[in-house]
Amino acid sequence: MKNGSLKLALIGTTLMATGAYAEDVTLTIESWRNDDLALWQEQIIPAFEAKHPGIKVKFTPSAPAEYNAVLNSKLDAGSAGDLITCRPFDASLALYEAGHLTDLSSVEAMSNFSDVAKSAWQTDDGSVSFCVPMASVIHGFIYNKDAFAELGIEVPATEDEFFAALDKIREDGTYVPMAMGTNDQWEAATMGYNNIGPNYWKGEEGRQALIAGEQKLTDEAWTAPYATLARWGEYLGDGYEAQTYPDSQNIFTLGRAAIYPAGSWEISGFNTQADFEMGAFKPPVRNAGDTCYISDHTDIGIGMNAATEHPEAAETFLAWVASPEFAEIFGNALPGFFPLSNTPVELQDPLAKEIVGWRDECESTIRSTYQILSRGTPNLENETWGASVAAIKGTSTPEELGTELQKGLSSWYAPHQ
Amino acid sequence: MNRPRFRWHIVVFLAPAVIVYTAVMIFPLFNTLRLALYTEIDQNRVFVGLHNFQTLFFDPIWSEQFWNALGNNFWFFLIHMLVQNPIGIALAALLSHPRLRFAALYRSAIFIPTILSFVIVGFAWKLILSPIWGIAPSMLDAIGLKSLFAPWLGKEEYALTTLALISVWQFVGIPMMLIYAALLTIPEEILEAGEIDGITGASAFWKIKLPLILPSIGIISILTFVGNFNAFDLIYAAQGALAGPDFSTDILGTFMYRTFFGFQLQLGDPHMGSAIAGAMFAIILVGVCIYLFGIQTRMRRYQL
Question: ipTM for the complex?
């Protein structure tokens, strides 16, 4: 008797639990964009939930630097969310190969994206897509318009003009010429090397040649950006060696620095922090009249956890992310994260509009180290961080850095052996 | 027949501790060591014996990082032994002075950093030493020593020492407390007897107190050793997983974390990570054994 009633109680609670599930499916999103929490909670999720009653969405981001590690552990433990924000290239490819991400090639909405947009989340042969592209970020320089007007500086288009402008700012002494530090290392590589580099290695042309093994990291095209970075050191603020990424952001938005080597993702943060007018210029070309190349880096996608209990609901959400409606909300709510869908989206933010306009004037490429080349040990991306810092500090010559990076790459990458 | 009854209560009372300890300590430890003997090939876990250790010690890409981390770890430990423990002992000696006023206040103030989280300590010191917002440059400026300031945490040659000193600041309370407790147990009669023989003041400390607290100093040394070789938090909080600049603050803990969980585009490798964890375990085990069998057994103890 006693046993029977216990069983009944158990069955009862199970039924109630499943009943609750049938009413409302809750999808959880894993992400590293903790800066966007408010945007997701106030704009994106309500817009989706209004259209799709019965599906609730929860956005649960973790810290950017820990995201990959946290996500991998969660996936292995089976406690990860239903939807997974995808880092570009190998990190997500590895997740797909390990069976953690679902094949989305058959999802109809994927046809809203160009092949280039999808390339960051495909298998090497391009046959399977496993994440819906969300946004790309573009590199360049953001500058303080007031400071430039005050000192009478024109926006530089060539490298000579760029360094002349820096000299002028330094001589005047009111502003730190350029706000960047080397403490966190990645800025030197991401906002330094991969920002100015595409003009040297001619964007996709050089990047593809490097992957194919036709060019080497010891070639002039790949070491010359380090030589240019070496000249940056004297224009960075006092004690830049211990200056962190948030320090640099604050120095610029407080109006203490004139130029900020940037990624477009800074725009929304800077808009709320800075009370002066900002402009942007693309990485200066080496000689006047050269074709310009920009790093238009596919940065965020979103995929489905293969172990999700609600595949239909998750697919509904992904199809919505691929729709122009999402692109419109996302592109405008997060100026600086540029939607990748084929339907053009009208951006309201002037700075974002200026930057996205470079897509028409310049050739787009992505960061050189992200596709395929960071698969082995030593990891080329991490090595590039160290190398860029060493270049700026002047602790190694560009040639030494090229030789060292090439040695590391050759040690595991067959086309370079 | 008077067979003693099996004393079940012993088993019952031991069980919770044994079960919990096995589940959260012993099993994970051996499982980690086991994991180090495997590798992953095409999504399959393959047994490779000691190959991971061979890679770690003999493949230049890995061994260079390993020896760098180990060397940094020894330097980290050395600073603690040379700075933290002598200061701790000196503070304890001062605090146990009977005529010192506000002793309780000093004791608490010095001990408080120990209970702070690593994240707070790392972040606070990063701000204090920041060349941009920090109070360190302006304080040095106020006494005319601005030229001595350098962005210490960003310089290869100073960063590790700076972090070690921050750690010393945080933990100096522990040796102080242990030694203080040991000093309090020394009976007055012994000191008085020494006084009658003409041993007073500093020589009383060197000749009577110090030999009596030596066992405590030994315990502190071994605690420092284990703590330092397991250290990770402060470096991670202050410098991140890449332990910059240029790996100059990389210690075994951060090297293990980076390898095990991956970092940025570098994917995690639990098997190599476990191999590093295994090496750390071995180093600590050897250190503790040297202490236990080489030093502690030979130490002279006095019946007080």
Answer: 0.80
